[in-house]
Amino acid sequence: MTLPAMPSSDIASRIRATAQxxxxxxxxxxxxNVRERLGTGSNTxxxxxxxxxxQWFLARVSSSTRRPDWPGVLGDAMDTLWQxxxxxxxxxxxTLRQEVSxxxxxxxxxxxxxxxxxxxxxxxxxxxxxxLARVQDALLAQQQAGERLAQQVAELEAALxxxxxxxxxxxxxxxxxxxxxxEALAEQERQAEQRLALAVADGEKREALAYERLEGLRxxxxxxxxxxxLEHEQEKKRQDALIADLxxxxxxxxxxxxxxxxxxxRERALLEARAEAQLARQAELEARLLDATxxxxxxxxxxxxxxxxxxxxxxxxxxxxxxxA
Length: 325
What we know:
Blueprint: H1 10-24, H2 31-38, H3 43-64, H4 72-263, H5 268-319
Helix pairs in contact: 1-2, 1-3, 2-3, 3-4, 4-5
Protein name: KrfA protein
Keywords: Coiled coil
Domain KfrA N-terminal DNA-binding: 13-120
């Protein structure tokens, strides 16, 4: 059986030398104690090198312990059995190592969780202590506020007593003021009644005076209207008489001139001239007649205006408080 050659790399040589040293000390080499002894190297490299070293070491031990009196076939069978047992042990060791590693990882996770829980508990404890401090501060503040409130209550009670005394004083003053106000109100009512009586009497006097003035004004307006109407009638009679005289004179003149016109053609021109003058006189008389008619119309309009003024004065007197506007 050919034994595996020793590795030539430095880290592999150091790993196998350390394993040999541990075996010489009576300790079976593992990844942990080899790495602790070396102080360096990765777990994967150490594990691979230890696996090769174990095969080499077990093969060497097997070859060194072979019995010379055994047949070759038996020796080979024993070597094969030994190699198989070593491989089986190696696999079981790897399985056990994996289980231990998984358990170690689980323990590490549990430790991390316990540590986190411990940190959370410590934080909660600190928070509870802070909350307790705040509660104590709040309690102290409430006690101080209670003391201040009690002091304020005492001050308010004292102020209430003062307010009650002031209220009693003000009540007396209010009663006195109410009595004075009632007396002043009665005096004002008496004076108001006197002023009202004087105002009523004065109003009655002013109403009587206004009525007298209105009656006098109405009589004056009626008298003026009658006088103007009489003057208008007289003027109209004079105008009518004048017009009648003029018409009679015109008729006489026309008759006279007509007779003379029939009697003499020589006097025709003179008669025509006199006729024209007479016509002018007639036009003047007609103009005077028209003027008299216009004056009569103006007199009628003036009488209507006087009647309207009289009606307006009566309306103002009826709607006023006794004094004409």
